[in-house]
Amino acid sequence: MRKLALQNLVIYGGIPAAVSLVLIGSYFSGVAFLQNIVSPNFELPNPNAPREFGLLENLQNVYLIAIIVIAAVAARRSGGLARMAFFGVALFVSFVFLEEIDYGLHYYEIITGVSSYDPEQVRNVHNIGDTTQHIKRVADAVLILFFGLMPLALRKNTHPFVRAVLPSPYCLLTLVVMLVMRSLAHGLQDAGFGDPGSIEKNISEFRELNIYYLALVYMLDIARRPFVNKDSV
Predict the structure, then answer these.
(1) Which domain holds residue 131?
(2) Rounded to a whole number, what is the distance in angstroms from the first to the last CA of the chain?
């Protein structure tokens, strides 16, 4: 039991905290080389595109791809409603991944040598108008309700469906890490560290990284539960 508890502490708290600290420390270190590894700051046709080639953005993409693969494998192993649910997750996260990479526009612009005056202005759905702010509000509600309150409120519920989809109580630890790292990143930026940087208006990327990590850990947990098999209803 102690071994399992320690393992969960590492998975839900230690890993996201360590990764975030390395990335935040490197970006706000004042060392240009380290900052450019996390989020590059060089000239491209689209002035907002350099960060897309950094470790921070691409680690997010790795998490998303991992979720898609896990969901697809779980769908193949499952049957009935479980298969449909996992397939739906794979499709939805594929859409999120395409949104994150701007459907490959920044790669296309580099390869084709698009002029700095001619990049596509509409690059994805989530950056049109106030869509990003609406998505953040929905994400915050999901994080608080699904990963924060439900594991505590329903921890003694024995209904098969609830037991199948209920997040681990350790998800609360990841939420705490997310909040602490978000505050740290914004605090360092407000204090003038890492200036100028390519994500000075997108510091929430550090928070987004931990959201995707939490989703990945949750998907790994769900995919290993007993209901994921050919006899699923």
Answers:
(1) 2-223
(2) 31
Which one is predicted more confidently, 40 or 183? 183
Listed ranges 2-16, 35-49, 152-166, 204-218; the one with the highest mean pLDDT: 204-218
Helices 55-77 and 15-27, axial angle in degrees (round to 10): 150
| 157 found inside a domain | yes
Establish if 167 belongs to a structural domain. Answer: yes
Digit-coded pLDDT (tens) for 16-36:
999 999 999 999 998 888 988
**Inter-CA distances, 115 with 40, 52, 107, 118, Å:** 19, 18, 13, 5
What is the spatial distance between Cα 112 and Cα 100, in angstroms, rounded to a whole number? 20
Average pLDDT, the chain: 85
Domain count, the chain: 1
Tokens of 38: 């996390």
In a domain, 233, yes or no: no
228 found inside a domain: no
Q: How far apart are CA 51 and CA 38, in angstroms?
A: 8
